[in-house]
Design brief:
The protein is built from 2 helices and 8 strands. It has about 120 residues and is mainly β. It has a single domain, classed as PDZ domain (Pdz3 Domain, Roll), CATH 2.30.42.10. Strands 1, 2, 3, 4, 5, 6, 7 and 8 form an 8-stranded antiparallel sheet that branches. This is PDZ domain-containing protein. It comes from Hanusia phi. InterPro entries: PDZ, PDZ_6, PDZ_sf.
């Protein structure tokens, strides 16, 4: 069963993110299910739906749990993060592309969530 992992953060006292919405697949990988409009992830233009988040700042997410993914992707506003992805269905290949983004407050369709897991 797929679960939705949302790491969209807003608020002065909270860590900030990049606007990725991820689904946890049955194999434990984290797949991009959407990008928050006008977020760093959306604005970079390199990330596609179905891409697999493979690493954060050079650290592999292999066998990572949701809490580890949240901790790795969130941080202080204005801080840089390098996310490594494998492209869609070809994620079994060794090709990883990396995107550097700056964390900031992200608003998502009138709702703000912090690593909310929703069964689909």
């Amino acid at each position: 069963m797929w679960k939705t992992l949302r790491s969209m953060i807003v608020g002065d006292s909270e860590p900030y993110g990049v606007g990725l919405v991820l689904r946890e697949a049955e194999d434990g990988s984290f797949v991009v299910s959407s990008l928050v409009p006008d977020s760093p992830a959306d604005e970079c233009g390199s990330i596609a739906l179905g891409d697999v988040l493979y690493e954060v700042d050079g650290r592999s997410l292999y066998r990572a749990d949701k809490a580890e993914v949240m901790k790795a992707t969130l941080g202080p506003p204005g801080s840089r993060v390098v996310l490594g992805f494998k492209r869609g269905l070809r994620y079994e290949r060794d090709e990883v592309f990396r995107v550097t983004m700056v964390r900031r407050a992200v608003k998502g369709a009138g709702q703000v969530t912090r690593l909310k897991v929703v069964a689909q």
